[in-house]
Amino acid sequence: MRLSAGGLGPGLRHWIPVGCRLPYPSCRLVSSSRPDRRRTDIRDSMVGDGATYESWTRTGLIRRLRALEAELRTRPPTEEGTTADLPPTKTKRGVDPSRYSTRYIALKLAYLGKRYGGFEFQAMGNQPTIEEELWNALTRACLVFPDGDDEAVQFDRCEYSKCGRTDRGVSAFGQVVGLRVRSNRPVRRQKGDDEAIEEEEEEEQEEEEQETRPFDDVADELCYPYILNRLLPPDIRILAWCPSPPAGFSARFSCRERQYRYFFTQPAFSPRLAPSAGVAPGWLDVKAMRDAAKRFEGEHDFRNLCKVDPSKQIINFRRRIFEADIVEMENVQSAMPYLQDPEHRLGGDRSHHPKVYYFLVRGSAFLWHQIRHMVAILFLVGQGLEKPSVVSQLLDVDAHPRKPTYAMADEVPLVLWDCVFPDADVDADVDAKNRFQDALRWIYVGDERPINKFGPFGVIDGLWRLWRESKMDELLAHQLLMKVEGQGASQRRGDEGDARGKAGVTLFEGGNGGRMAGKYVAVMEKSVTQSPEEQNEKYAKRKGYASAEDMRAQKAIMGRGGETEKGGGGGCRGLSEVREETRDDGS
């Protein structure tokens, strides 16, 4: 096969190194030889098995691939003359990293996490991850140079660090990563490099012209967001890049503030018919939720509002929350007139519903699943099943050292909204509301060329298409709901009285509907888990350590031995245990 890149304009060729794959739709695959007999046999055997690989797991696909490779090795050689007239296969020309300069940058990216298995790459995961898609785009654009197999994810080769590790289904609109990438800055040739000079005469002429003027770190540099957005899926976008992170920068450890938002509707789920006195099930008491949210503010021990991972041997569960609040969104309402009927509406509230709110929380760092545990408690308060004081009880770890076994909230409405990197040399760079000022110099999409933001194939154009697709789904679902609601006779209030009494309570946990839960048991009356100290001790002994303290001591020694800080790059390998207090797994 050969690539025909006639459709590529000169403006898109300059950043593609020799030997790099061309990832554009205009590239055409042109057949240059007859099919290989062995490959045809394997394809026939695969089809003959009746395999439908679309539904296979990743593990199953790998196992099948290995079986086919083993079958190919055991087959006898092809008959003489069958491939003699075929042209020799061209060896892919590799990219020589020494011919290109590199630089350390930071990228700000956004993604919708619903169809991904989380941000962090998982070798044997059943769903793609954000890091996997990012790595594929980086290698296809030849912005990073992996060793050996291009398909293997090798972020450790580019001084990589990430700000937050969002879980499966969680989105982010302000995620930040730091890494070293290929640069457009010219590389001075060494004497005797005649062959390379002859092969790239045009490139040499461009370098000679650039030598007459200093290299501009932004104007003369590759447009990283534009390059990567052409290669990434439509639900992953690079929003900005920072050309000059400070020395020792780490996207993880340099971040001083992370903001999350958890979105929900009012009513939370389709309201049941209201009893003769009271509020129809499905509505939330937003005022009580706001009271409970404010109790999270300050520095507290959140061991009862997170999930403990004993493999990390965390002993410090104190985190500082700068702000926690319930905020109503504007201009996002959908018209549902039947919610104003006395049988459905929220008491005497005659305002238009449904409304959209979000739980806003800002903090320095978060524990594993901390946000979703906090939201779960707020929903119980909003449904009137718990009082706001339950938050104060859960934060009192002296009185309650073991976490009650309650379910955490759904993951899809959660968004890592922003990450803030203040000047490390200015400790007082915070306002009266504990808001840090971001000191990174971000170059947003469109700052250099507005067409990259609003033009054809710009980031706004792509996000508009993504939004409209979702909007049409919402519109059709809304019209169907309203059509069905208006058909037939309305149910009377007394018709479901007996059924409601037998069904118990309906719990809202952030998903698309309520969950029937029978008789409700208060949070502080539920069974409890082992304390973090007990879980750490049990795990350490199961792994062969004398105690949890012994395990932490040995891991600290290993961490100090592997600690690496690359100048200007901020590689952070080996620091996860030594600097555990800044770990962020809030999703």
UniProtKB/TrEMBL annotation:
<feature type="region of interest" description="Disordered">
    <location>
        <begin position="72"/>
        <end position="95"/>
    </location>
</feature>
<dbReference type="InterPro" id="IPR020097">
    <property type="entry name" value="PsdUridine_synth_TruA_a/b_dom"/>
</dbReference>
<dbReference type="InterPro" id="IPR020094">
    <property type="entry name" value="TruA/RsuA/RluB/E/F_N"/>
</dbReference>
<feature type="domain" description="Pseudouridine synthase I TruA alpha/beta">
    <location>
        <begin position="292"/>
        <end position="422"/>
    </location>
</feature>
<dbReference type="GO" id="GO:0003723">
    <property type="term" value="F:RNA binding"/>
</dbReference>
<dbReference type="InterPro" id="IPR041707">
    <property type="entry name" value="Pus3-like"/>
</dbReference>
<keyword id="KW-0413">Isomerase</keyword>
<dbReference type="InterPro" id="IPR020103">
    <property type="entry name" value="PsdUridine_synth_cat_dom_sf"/>
</dbReference>
<dbReference type="GO" id="GO:0005737">
    <property type="term" value="C:cytoplasm"/>
</dbReference>
<feature type="compositionally biased region" description="Acidic residues">
    <location>
        <begin position="195"/>
        <end position="210"/>
    </location>
</feature>
<feature type="region of interest" description="Disordered">
    <location>
        <begin position="187"/>
        <end position="214"/>
    </location>
</feature>
<feature type="region of interest" description="Disordered">
    <location>
        <begin position="528"/>
        <end position="587"/>
    </location>
</feature>
<protein>
    <recommendedName>
        <fullName>Pseudouridine synthase I TruA alpha/beta domain-containing protein</fullName>
    </recommendedName>
</protein>
<dbReference type="GO" id="GO:0031119">
    <property type="term" value="P:tRNA pseudouridine synthesis"/>
</dbReference>
<dbReference type="GO" id="GO:0009982">
    <property type="term" value="F:pseudouridine synthase activity"/>
</dbReference>
<dbReference type="InterPro" id="IPR001406">
    <property type="entry name" value="PsdUridine_synth_TruA"/>
</dbReference>
<keyword id="KW-0819">tRNA processing</keyword>
<dbReference type="InterPro" id="IPR020095">
    <property type="entry name" value="PsdUridine_synth_TruA_C"/>
</dbReference>
<dbReference type="GO" id="GO:1990481">
    <property type="term" value="P:mRNA pseudouridine synthesis"/>
</dbReference>
<dbReference type="GO" id="GO:0005634">
    <property type="term" value="C:nucleus"/>
</dbReference>
<dbReference type="Pfam" id="PF01416">
    <property type="entry name" value="PseudoU_synth_1"/>
</dbReference>
<feature type="compositionally biased region" description="Basic and acidic residues">
    <location>
        <begin position="576"/>
        <end position="587"/>
    </location>
</feature>
<comment type="similarity">
    <text>Belongs to the tRNA pseudouridine synthase TruA family.</text>
</comment>
